Amino acid sequence: MRVISGNLKGKKLFSPKGLSLRPTSDRVREAIFDILQDQFQGDNVLDLFAGTGALGIEALSRGAKRAVFVEGSTRSLGVLRRNIEECRLKKQAEVLGRKAQAAIKILEARGESFELIFLDPPYGQGLAREVLEALSRSSLITPDTLVVAEHSLSEGLDSLPSWQRIDRRKYGRTLVSFFRPEKVFH
Length: 186
Known about the structure:
It is a single chain. The chain has a 7-stranded mixed β-sheet, with helices on both faces. α3 links the parallel β2 and β3 (about 95). The radius of gyration is 15 Å and the shape is globular. The chain is an alpha/beta fold. Helices cover about 30% and strands about 25% of the residues. The longest helix is centred in the middle third of the chain and has 13 residues, at about 75-85. The chain has 5 helices and 7 strands, in the order αβαβαβαβαβββ.
């Protein structure tokens, strides 16, 4: 795995060995950022279920000003922190070693909001829908927030109240859905 573009282009990212982690492939990450183009310049980015941090690091490499990485697995946190350190992003990056729902509450209490949110939970557990529903009720989103959710074909994200899917792409067994809020309730 490597950073695809930006000021960190070509930088190698570490991945934990022997874990059931499913890092976003270079191909899918490149496709996501080709679709995003320059929409996130200067934005605050939230990388939920960050794993190696590849999505948030890519956003920082391409000009995002700040990223918060949320990872609930203590085994993945070491690799995430190492990637941030190796990429010299400590001043722009914050790591929250929490489950997504708990992190959302912490970030809300601090008055945070994000223009771009990456959501890449483990497949088959209903977490994508659960977290999208929690985000729709949170103050973390603005009318301009874009959520990029990776999920499996079997996870139905077709009828989500409060979210409008503006694009969906298929890469093998992975779907990438792009959502904007229909209404912001806070």
